Request: fold
Amino acid sequence: MTRALFGKQRPQGPIGPSTWHESFPPRPTSFRGRGRELATLSKLVRSDHPTTLALVGGGGSGKSTLAAALGHRLMRHFARHVAWVRIGNWDPQTVLEMMAFGLGHSPGTHPERIVRKAIGAEPALVVLDNHESDATTAAVLAKLRDLPVTWLLTARRCLLGGISIFPVVAPLIERREVLFPRVAELTRTLRWNAVALDIADGLVATKRATVAELEVALTKAGVDRVVPMAHEDDIPEVRAMVMIALSRLGPPEKRLLSVLASSRGDAIGDEALRVLARLKPADSGAIRSLCSLRLIQEPRPSHFTLHATMRAALERVLTLNPERVARFYLEYFEAAPERLADNPTQLFALMDWAQESGNLTNVLRVHTLVEALGHLRTKRGGASDQAGPGGLHSGGFSSRELQRNSIT
Reply:
């Protein structure tokens, strides 16, 4: 994914790591069977810093959870110089820009320079979550190889040389230990997949299903069969549990899931999510219901997202409308540009949408938002390296009124 560069910014404010940790996910609340791996990784990072590690495993194996737990364990060791950047399948320039945002600064026209200034000479830990492009990651790390950073990648697959690979499998699968006692009988059926077991546990805990009912439904769904997978996130066990859960949900909950699956950014804030899903006052408990069923995640307070394997399962069965979500966010940010500061990945998603639309009006409107975010960062003490507005290298964007953009 590449975009045309435009816009510059004026350097203001100090550059430093004081707010890096704010980009980091909260400490995992459910962390089962990972004590040994966490201790091994912690020891490895302390002894080999600076280094580059990759947590590699299938969808739902717990890579991101392990990375988050490791960051919190080492938070004091790195004097809070820890940051989280979700890189995905972006081009090198965009990854550097997102890294600058993760470090609390506007990237300007030279994001590499900003990243270097932000990191400085102090030891740091930076998690590059959801690595997908080997060429992009290799290019970015080559540019920054002399920095005192331990880079920690999470990836479903990784064909990079010069790094240490740490395989991640479902916790305790080798010892055949039970992860979720409430649904212990389903552990083998769901092949120790933590995401699938978590959903099953949520359904039983909220009395939406019994273990016996789930066993019958899973057998009917054929989870014991050998079948081809479309890609790394197409996990049959998760797909089966999602189908079972959907059959027990009401329209408001299904609309929420459709919105989250349609989003090309990361988390969606509570306010935007409620409007997009057309929630009424009577539906006020729908979001928390999905949380209690373990169908959605809350990576930071009042911001919600889907696990990648959940998204893949929902894409098969729900009606998605990423165009409508993009148009909503364009109007949402235009109405209150200060919202941009808490939603940078939605802005990056807007830029890709605008470029793909081929619509000059869309491009110009998103360009205006890019400039607005640059000004917000400058006011908050972020820095860039050039004079003028803007700073991101971007591509295209369009809109309607908030309610007209709600998911139907």
